[in-house]
Specification:
Transcriptional Co-activator pc4, Chain A, four-stranded antiparallel beta sheet, 3 helices
């Protein structure tokens, strides 16, 4: 008799400091980031699909800018407020992206290189593609939380 194997989420490694997990029935993603503090502990975040879509648009804008396809941010970087505890800024001359998360009243800054932006955009495309599957398919294929 064959024992059922435990289902695992899909995992995409953006860098040594950022990992993206997806494959849940409701389409959300989980992101693990290393905190920019001593010992660099991992900090897991659950991101609902509506916010994943905002991140995808933001990373697309940053990638287009970095590839020279957009001149929107030539004067000043563009800041997007995802919600009151999350802000993303892109359009810097060195093509990086800054993400700031507020937890327990403290803003935590994270910086993504252009290479991480491109990898992040690919991962976000996959997360959204999974979330856009028909509900019955997600229910069969997806994980419970």
């Amino acid at each position: 008799m064959c024992a059922a194997s435990k289902r695992e989420p899909f995992k995409r490694v953006l860098s040594e400091n950022v990992e993206v997990y997806f494959g849940w029935k409701d389409g959300h993603a989980k992101i693990k980031v290393r905190l920019p503090i001593p010992l660099k502990p991992w900090w897991p975040l659950s991101v609902p699909i509506d916010k994943v879509r905002v991140f995808k648009q933001t990373f697309r804008g940053a990638a287009d800018f970095g590839e020279g396809k957009s001149s929107l941010a030539l004067v000043n970087p563009i800041e997007i407020e995802v919600d009151e505890d999350c802000k993303v800024k892109w359009g810097f001359k060195d093509r990086h992206l800054e993400l700031r998360l507020k937890r327990l009243g403290i803003w935590m800054p994270f910086s993504f290189t252009f290479e991480e932006i491109k990898a992040g955009l690919l991962a976000l495309d996959e997360v959204v593609a999974f979330a856009d599957l028909p509900e019955d398919v997600r229910n069969l294929q997806g994980l419970d939380d």
